[in-house]
Amino acid sequence: MHHVCYLVSDIWEGISHLKNMGIDMIDLEPREGLNNTLVAFAHPKA
Predict the structure, then answer these.
(1) How is the chain split into domains, by residue range?
(2) What is the pLDDT along the chain (46 residues), one digit of tens a residue?
(3) Spatial CA neighbour of 32 closest among 9, 13, 11
(4) 17-22: which pairs have CB atoms within 8 A and are 24 or more residues apart?
C-alpha cells in the first residue's frame, strides 16, 4: 500500500492526535495539497 488518507474536519487537531499517539510526522504543519486542500504526511515507518 502506498498511501492511506483520512479526511478530518480540523487538520491541526488531526496532526496533534497523531503526534499524541506517537506517530512520527514529516509535516508538523499542514501544507498545500491538490485541489486547494491541506495535507500533512506521517513518516512511512510510523
Answers:
(1) 1-46
(2) 778 899 999 999 999 999 999 999 999 999 999 999 999 999 988 7
(3) 11
(4) 18/42
